[in-house]
Amino acid sequence: MSRDLEPLLSEARLAFFGKITASLSHELNNVLSYINELSGLTGDLLAAGAQGRPVNTEKLQRLAERIGGQVHRGEVLIKRLNRFSHSADVPRKTFDLGKLLEDIMGLAQRPATMKGFELTASFPDESINIHSDPFGLQHLVFTCFEAIWESPAVRKTVSVSCRREEKGASVLVGAAEPLARNDGVISRLRFAARLAGDLGGRMTEPAEQSPDPITIWLPSSTEDGER
Amino acid sequence: MERLRVLLVDDEEELVSTMVERLRLRDIEADAETDGYRALDRVMASDYDVVLVDVKMPGLGGMELLGEIRKERPDVPVILLTGHTAEQEGVEGMRIGAFDYLMKPINIDDLILRMRDAAGRRQG
Q: What's the half-sphere exposure (Cβ side, CA atoms, 13 Å) at A163?
């Protein structure tokens, strides 16, 4: 990436970080709200019991289990947030591509739902380790999601897969329908191509009216790439 | 005191159904809806004293639903629910006609107080 674009990229990275953490904090707040209501209802039922109404112990048990379920949901979110935050610790490291993609899909779940989209994944059983910028790659994949979300669609599904290539790996991000070429889609695809280049890889977008996915080509190691 | 009739709208189904249960235990006639468009249909077809709307919902979002209710049923007060970190949305909502806003997690007694206040002003 040319030097004059670096400040723009830094801004975009920060904006991406903010978008993801804001979404996660909203989800965590929802977990707290659930727990607040479930524990409140437990208290209501116990208070009614203290006033002589029969206490339904099975219902109390179910409420306790639902609270436990929300605590687990919160734990998953916090772990996801923690991994995401630490993905920006170092500019390059070796990581399992499939696991990283699972992470970004988890992080993108709520924004996707808000746009009415469903995310589906299909990853190989084998680990595909690459040496790259994990934060930058998540930014790139999320930008591809945003490009697809900008395209009007009836079938609102985004599929993600990855595979080993001779000199690295590829990530495929596909829409259920051919992408429209409106300003939102075009600008995001262009930006995604720049991000791919910054990772030493490249991105190919589907031809107009083509059902092909967006394909990101990544070198095994950023140092081997096309930077 | 007259029995309140309220509609709670939030895409988090379990959350909204639990809130409804708690309100019913307090002798409030509460219904739940998880979709903004269906909520609008219910507001048009029924006579709620207050509608409680979560700001962040897929499809017809909370702000859009507020706008539609203000247009179609300006007599029905709307209280917005926002995330704890999104106070600005509540303020913006009041600018475009919300009666009030509350930040999640909410206190049930505070919620009832505000709903009664909204219903009282509607009748008064």
A: 5
Q: What is the dihedral of CA A82, A88, A90, A95, to 10 degrees?
A: 70
Nearest residue on chain A to B54, judged by CA atoms? Answer: A30
Interface contacts A/B by beta carbons within 8 Å: 54
ipTM tops the 0.95 cut: no
Measured CA to CA, the distance from residue A102 to residue A128 in angstroms comes to 13
Torsion angle, CA of A135/A139/A145/A146, rounded to 10 degrees? Answer: 150
pLDDT tens-digit readout, A124-139:
999 999 999 999 999 9
Q: What is the pTM of this model?
A: 0.88
Closest partner residue to A29 (CB to CB) among B18, B19, B83 is: B83
List of chain B residues whose C-beta atoms are within 8 Å of the C-beta of residue A25: 83, 85
**Helix (H), strand (E) counts: chain A:** 5, 7
Q: Which residues contact A100 (CB under 8 A, 6 or more apart)?
A: A87, A134, A137, A138
pLDDT (tens digit per residue) in A15-29 = 999 999 999 999 999
Q: Comparing C-alpha atoms, which of B25, B29, B32 is closest to residue B11?
A: B32
> What are the helix and strand counts (H, E) for chain B?
5, 5
Answer yes or no: do A25 and B83 touch at CB < 8 A. Answer: yes
pLDDT digits (tens, 9 = 90+) for B72-86: 999 999 999 998 667
Q: How confident is the model at residue A108 (pLDDT cuts 50, 70, 90)?
A: very high
**CB under 8 Å to A75, separation ≥6 — which residues?**
none
Backbone φ, ψ for residue B33 (5° rounding):
-145, 140
Question: Which residues, including other chains, have CB under 8 Å from residue A79's CB and lie 6 or more apart?
Answer: none
Q: What's the rounded Cα separation, in Å, for the pair B92 and B89?
A: 5
How many CB atoms are closer than 10 A to CB B17? 16
Nearest to B21 by CA among B34, B11, B31: B31
Q: Helices marked H in chain B — which ranges?
A: 13-25, 36-45, 62-72, 87-95, 108-123
Q: How far apart are CA A136 and CA A148, in angstroms?
A: 19
Does A116 contact B at CB distance below 8 Å? yes
